[in-house]
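Z., the sequence and structure:
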Amino acid sequence: MTGFSRLPLVALMLSAAPCGFPEPEWQSLFDGKSLEGWRETPFTRHGTVRVENGSIILGRGAMTGITRTKPFPKSNYEVRLEAVRMDGQDFFAGITFPVKDSYCSWIVGGWGGSVVGLSSLDGDDASENETSTSRTFEKGRWYSLALRVTDGWIQAWIDNEKIIEVATTGRKIDLRAGEMDLSTPFGIASYSTVAGLRKLEYRELPPSQDK
């Protein structure tokens, strides 16, 4: 099982605090015991969400997820968490997040289990645009995921490997057609898959901290 390595991730993600600014502090998004600060996303034919052994379990459904009920920044922030595909063959982490006044989703393990990418950029979803990659995900293995959104860039890491770096200036950022808008302003979902989530944290960054 791959644990979440805090220090290497911070080293890989470019310095969040310019000279003269204190290092931003990480804030917990999950207390390990309840869904305080979240609601079960009302997707059609969704599965059951529960908290078990310090993890949020997204039960099998057409799509199952949680949506943040507290304020969330629109830009200049980082998110990190661990996620696992416990059963099923599709995405086990579909992270919907703000990009200024728009929203986007980072799909991890979609389209039959392997596609990683952003939905959508200029109308093209995660299987079609330049962020699309394919990788094998082991069932039962926890993966560390990290996302950084600044005024001009979206960057993402899996197990400390940067797998997405895309400029957003001049691009049309939007959600894939369907029910992903129910995840706004910030939410995490799985599709036809039992998934686990833990160690959810975020921090706000000083303005203009692009790549």
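The two ends are 31 Å apart (CA to CA). The first strand starts at residue 27 and ends at 28.

Let me know what you think.
H.
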